Amino acid sequence: MLVTTRMPHRVFHKVYDADYVGAVGSDDAALQTSSVIESTAGGTVLVGSSRRQAGFDAALDLDAVREIARKATRVFPFLADAAVMRVYGGFRPFMPDHLPVIGADPRVAGLWHATGHEGAGVGLALGTAELLRDVMTGRPPHSTPSPSRPLAPRSASERRRDRARDAAGGDPVRPGAAEAVTIVVDGEPVTGVRGQSIAGVLLAADRTAWRTTAAGRRPRGIFCGIGVCFDCLVAVGGVRDIRACQRPATDGDLVTTQDETLPETTS
């Protein structure tokens, strides 16, 4: 995704080209791009998008950025003069048949899944939540959930871990006193659990916001939780602009919140 600076031009409706429809159902693992363009209430323009089966490789794909920009300027030529202030990427949870996984896990009691929506998660979130609520509470669902999918066989390392857990009489990865981490936030110690992000530690400690809006100085909380809204920026060890939702909390981290004013309406 590319984000421009504020512009005098506005795109009054989300515009996307037909390549997007083909990419949604494609099994091609290679890079695919399609134009998805819209203005935000703050006057910036969001430009996307790309798909590539990259596993968990989070490196920015400059080829994708160039192709997205090239296609967008064909749809809206005025974008050729736009200044891009931010570029970011993220993961799309993907299933080979392009259908989401919604429902109870067949192996772990009490574990429920709502994932695999690829790029349609924002549009399908409410329906997914209602469906999961119904199946969890025993209500007749408004639509039929996808069938439970058998999960991948356990790896050798997973089997060894399970044997070690059974021999120890418990689950060694269960959070306990030994799993605690303590970070220092604005001079105050905050305790969390190993494996949490800095944002997770803060949220669990009821620190739901650490930035404020430009007008009214109202608290501003994390918007996305996946590192694309940049509302969770903190300084860690003096290094600014760390996305707290993506940075694992490490015992002894010195965290300083960046209480910078933000526009009242952002995307």
TrEMBL record:
It comes from the Bacteria. It holds the Pfam family Fer2_4. Residues 39-134 form the FAD dependent oxidoreductase domain. SUPFAM superfamilies: 2Fe-2S ferredoxin-like, FAD-linked reductases, C-terminal domain, Nucleotide-binding domain. Coiled coil: none annotated. Residues 136-175 are annotated as: Disordered. Residues 156-168 have a biased composition (Basic and acidic residues). InterPro entries: 2Fe-2S-bd_N, 2Fe-2S_ferredoxin-like_sf, FAD-dep_OxRdtase, FAD/NAD-bd_sf. Keywords: Oxidoreductase. PANTHER family: FAD-DEPENDENT OXIDOREDUCTASE DOMAIN-CONTAINING PROTEIN 1 (PTHR13847:SF287), SARCOSINE DEHYDROGENASE-RELATED (PTHR13847). This is FAD dependent oxidoreductase domain-containing protein.
